[in-house]
Amino acid sequence: MDEKFDCIVVGAGPAGSMAAKTLAKKGVEVLLLEKHPEIGVPLSCAEAISVSGLDRFVKPEPEWISTRIHEALLVSPSNDRLMIHHPHAGFVLNRKIFDKRLAQQAASLGACVKVNSCVVSLLSLNKDGFCGVKVLEEGREKEYRTKVIIGADGVESWVARWAGMDSSLRLDQIESCAQYLLGEVEVESDRMEFYLGQSVAPGGYAWVFPKSDRTANVGLAITPNRTPKKAKELLDQFVPKRFSNFRV
Questions:
Q1: Is 190 domain-assigned?
Q2: What is the pTM of this model?
Q3: Distance CA 137, CA 36 (A)
Q4: Average pLDDT, the chain
Q5: Is residue 151 part of a domain?
Q6: Is 206 in contact with 198 (CB distance < 8 Å)?
Q7: CATH no. for residue 108?
Q8: Domain range holding 205?
Q9: Which of 6, 78, 190, 237 gives the lowest tally of CB atoms within 10 Å of its CB?
Q10: Number of domains in the chain
Q11: Which UniProt keywords apply (predicted)?
Q12: Please, what is the Cα angle at 163 between 157 and 165, to 5 degrees?
């Protein structure tokens, strides 16, 4: 028999888990579906967030926080440097823990959370909309019924596409990114670094976000139509210029 819920949330990233948590707190029967076997994995961001950005939605907990950021260094194309100080600028999170805890909070309030549940299509209700989702779980198809579906499955959401909305992006609307978690580097654990310029990251910037005083997320984002080079190629050029010693 198909299982029924008041609402189904597709995607257990921070947005999906917060939606499920908010609904569950109101007494809504909600199902939160995550296609990966583990929430928070694989990592798909640089893990930095402002204090105000986090405080708006959830109270920070120490186990989520890798480092607390108090200053930012901006480096121009001509190597001019600007240091910005702020006592409560932001955090570099441990997203693996952060994402899991948000989903656990939703579950503790009554949400049903399922991993390894890949939504493959929406269930149509004649011409009047959609009444659920079809899911692959351990190689088997299963259907879940609902009145409301929330697509929290990323910037080019498949849920949105299946519902008839255009979630595709043009090449000039996206950034191509690459990132390494580097070890054995020398960084200030409370300082973010940003590097600008066409030679570094055309149409974007490079970043160094410390996870400790010896590890950092180091990456860059580019506008693809600004350069023939790939983001990873530019990152491989940037890393040895910034660090004399490092381990990927």
A1: yes
A2: 0.91
A3: 11
A4: 94
A5: yes
A6: no
A7: 3.50.50.60
A8: 70-89+172-242
A9: 78
A10: 2
A11: Flavoprotein, Lipid biosynthesis, Lipid metabolism, Oxidoreductase, Phospholipid biosynthesis, Phospholipid metabolism
A12: 65
